[in-house]
Amino acid sequence: MNAEINLAEKLGQKLPPQLVDFLQLAGRKAADRREKAYIVGGVVRDLLLGLDNYDIDLTVEGDAVALARYLMGSASDRITIHKQFNTAKIRWHDWNIDFVTARSETYASPGALPEITPSTLEADLKRRDFTINAMAIGLSGKSYGMLYDPCNGKRDLADKKIRILHDASFIDDSTRIWRGLRYEQRFGFELEPHTLQLLQRDIPMLDAISGERICYEIDCIFKEQYPEKVFKRADRLGVLNRFHPGVKFDMHTEERFSQARERCCPDSPSTLLYWLLLTYDLDIETKEAMISRLRLPKLIAQPLRDCSAVKDRLSLLAAPEIKPGEIYHLLFGYSLQAVLANIIATETEESRAALCLYMEKLHGVKAIITGSDLLEMGVTQGPLLKKMLGAILDARLNGKASSREDEIAIVRKMQAEGSK
Ligand code: ATP
Questions:
Q1: All structural domains of the chain with their residue ranges
Q2: Would the CB of 176 count as within 6 Å of ligand 1?
Q3: CA 398 to CA 357: how far, in whole Å?
Q4: I want to staple 145 with a disulfide (CB 3.0 to 4.6 A). Which of 6, 189, 230, 393 is the partner?
């Protein structure tokens, strides 16, 4: 394996000193155990690109969990062990460092999760998705800082190319299709021609991937700075249609994504908001089919439904002279992210104004008087009590009550009317 480039100086320049101390310690402790530890994957790639990335993944030729335990000694409360995957995560100051045993993988069938066997660094790097992610930096002994690059990832970084490691890569795991598009668009790289050809050939393999794994990749795209770039490319290549038939990425959706960023600035839009905007033009039947096919969790599925329900109310919300109380009743109970998606996507100013009023003010409005106050005031449990609470809330929403006294006056008036 070629190991001629030393990145020790770059590590020192790019990573926080306490993190470098930790990595050196990890390398020494691995050597104590006659094992070798390496930084792998995204951090190596980003270090070579000059980008900040402190999400350290360590690969251990040996036993990653035992090394993590040995390293932390009595501070075992800072280690989380995932027995099922034989991995460990260490919390060190503000950072999480993942420890994984070097492994090779075999795929029993396309799209299935791989069978894993402990192995060497080289085999571990060769099971990875793309050459630019298949590099490592040594941490133990004389190899500290050495670049391990068996698949020529550094060359592809310089040439701005995304390249898979073997021709069956997308067949083994077609989530790599989404990952490839994500890296291509994030870095402004290109899928090299043979990789692109295989990607296009293997698009149908995406149907073999579980909904959960597809959703994970889609969420990763939503966390990118410009997710629309990935979806536009995916649409052109016919990948988006495999995500779910009928999902398109047109100019409107692109514009909505950029508006979402403007509205949420300085924060990033939530991944949920992007889900709602990506699927905004789908009818509810198509959304339901997508929810079942991808087994979307309730936290996404319900807001997707809410978004359609709010969209169906847009013309009512645009009615001239609509009262705040009416807006409240049309929208109450729906997810605020679904309201926000409609603010971004609606083309009518009047409905947007109503949605904004709800989002900024009305949804948080509450009466001061409660049901138990009413009981104390002699109102009996039943429909009248409910009606009174509704009337008080409406008065609040419509600006007719602004204090407890105003609310009491409404109750008294209704009691007086009731006894006539
Ligand atoms: P990002 O900057 O997107 O987080 P990353 O490279 O850190 O990039 P992770 O998803 O955290 O990405 O994965 C860590 C490493 O694991 C990758 O760099 C890659 O080497 C490998 N990897 C992740 N997913 C796959 C996959 N589906 N097939 C093969 N290798 C993968």
A1: 1-157, 298-362, 371-419
A2: yes
A3: 12
A4: 6
